[in-house]
Amino acid sequence: MQEVLTKPGNESLPLSEQEFYELCIEESSNVWRPGFIVKQTHAKWSEIDQQVMWEEPEWERWPMQNRAREKYEERLQALRVKGFTRSDMDLF
Fold first, then answer.
1. If DSSP codes are grouped into helix, strand and coil, which group holds residue 46?
2. Beta-strand (E) ranges in 1-92?
3. What is the pTM of this model?
4. How do residues 28-71 score in pLDDT, each as one tens digit?
């Protein structure tokens, strides 16, 4: 599961004023630490690099998929409170 979130109207702003969050659940590929990883990554314009840069992701590992989905939903709700209510998943 993966989605990119933005604020409504973001697409009409210059790229230098836009920001995005990617939220996803990935299955761990570590044989010794199986489970599911919930990742949240923030992207915004970097004046120094003159491009959108993705920051280091925040992540947490959960042994059970249902717990990972709960944490995903918690993070999703927190981003919605911040105004990031438009999802690329809304297109499907």
1. strand
2. 2-6, 19-27, 36-46, 51-54, 58-62, 86-87
3. 0.86
4. 888 888 899 999 999 999 988 988 999 999 999 999 999 999 99
Range of weakest confidence among 11-25, 40-54, 78-92: 78-92
Do residues 30 and 9 touch, judged by C-beta distance below 8 A?
Answer: no
DSSP 8-state symbol, 1: -
* Residues 6 or more apart whose Cβ sits within 8 Å of residue 2: 22, 23, 24, 25
- H/E element holding 67? helix 65-81
| Per-residue tokens: 39 | 């990742």
What tokens does 78 get?
A: 């927190």
What CA–CA distance (Å, rounded) separates 21 from 41? 6
Task: Give, as one character, the DSSP assignment of residue 56.
Answer: P
Q: How many Cβ atoms sit within 10 Å of the Cβ of residue 68?
A: 22
